[in-house]
Design a protein that fits this description.
By secondary structure, the chain is α+β, with helices and mostly antiparallel strands. Helix content is 26%, strand content 33%. It folds into 2 domains: 87 residues, Arc Repressor Mutant, subunit A, CATH 1.10.10.10; 140 residues, Chorismate lyase (3-Layer(aba) Sandwich), CATH 3.40.1410.
Length: 259
């Protein structure tokens, strides 16, 4: 059974894997479980073909409810890391490819490229963190956070819609200042040292609202980026969900060869 702040040995394919489930943490248990399983897959502790068992099995062994286990497993199925097989259970498909990107802001990147970035702040308000935002920032659900939504332009044409959540009190998120410079520059000016980030890049079709703001037809291709940035103390200082016009923007990866 799972113990508070205890290590939980799992049988079968997970014999050597230990999960730390902290019931006192503001991070939901399903997110803790999913994050640790994802790390085990990415680190090679769980390899393609490994069976995790079914939801009933896992919930019993971990002392978690079936909905909690189901939500954790589904999040990894959605990422393409696991697959459910009838009569077999949940199986590891493949490990996630990790592509390092430089931790920089869109504003800095566009300015360095001579693109003359400008910004229009759409929203700048204090809201209560939902489960997703709270988990990303390591806060309790319902904690007040600052929501920033900005439309970034180059040469008077929209290129990206940026949505960021920051811990309340992190910095003075003055709207006029946000329209003059980049968020990360404001953080650096406030003495915040950005150290690392977890970032995920994807793609999807634009909603009607996004298409209107980005001057694209409904259903146009968008690049997506989800990122949680941390300072040099390990504190989460920003959770961003951004969409970019695929017709005007691309991500440039440097791939490292291992082994």
């Amino acid at each position: 059974m799972a113990r508070t702040r205890g290590r939980v040995p799992l049988p079968s394919a997970l014999d050597a894997l230990h999960l730390t489930l902290d019931r006192n943490s503001p991070v939901p248990l399903y997110h803790q479980l999913a994050r640790q399983l994802e790390a085990a897959i990415g680190g090679g502790e769980l390899t393609p073909g490994h069976l995790l068992g079914n939801e009933i099995d896992l919930s019993t062994r971990l002392g978690l409810s079936r909905p909690t286990v189901r939500q954790a497993i589904q999040s990894l199925v959605d990422k393409g890391l696991l697959i459910r097989r009838r009569g077999v259970g949940t199986q590891v498909v493949h490990s996630q490819v990790r592509r390092p990107l430089e931790l920089s802001s869109l504003y800095d990147d566009l300015e360095a490229a001579g693109q003359g970035p400008t910004t229009r702040v759409v929203r700048n308000e204090t809201v209560q963190a939902d489960a997703r935002v709270a988990a990303a920032l390591g806060l309790a659900e319902g904690t007040e956070v600052v929501l920033l939504e900005r439309l970034r332009h180059t040469h008077d044409r929209p290129v990206a819609l940026l949505c960021n959540h920051l811990p309340a009190g992190l910095l003075d998120s003055d709207t006029a200042r946000l329209e003059e410079t980049g968020l990360y520059r404001m953080m650096r000016s406030a003495g915040i040292t950005l150290h690392s980030a977890h970032q995920r890049v994807g793609a999807r079709s634009a909603t009607a609202g996004e298409a209107a703001r980005l001057d694209e037809p409904p259903g146009a291709a968008l690049l997506t980026m989800e990122r949680t940035a941390y300072d040099d103390t390990g504190r989460a200082v920003e959770y961003g969900t951004h969409v970019y016009r695929a017709s005007r923007y691309s991500f440039d990866f440097q791939l490292l060869v291992r082994g």
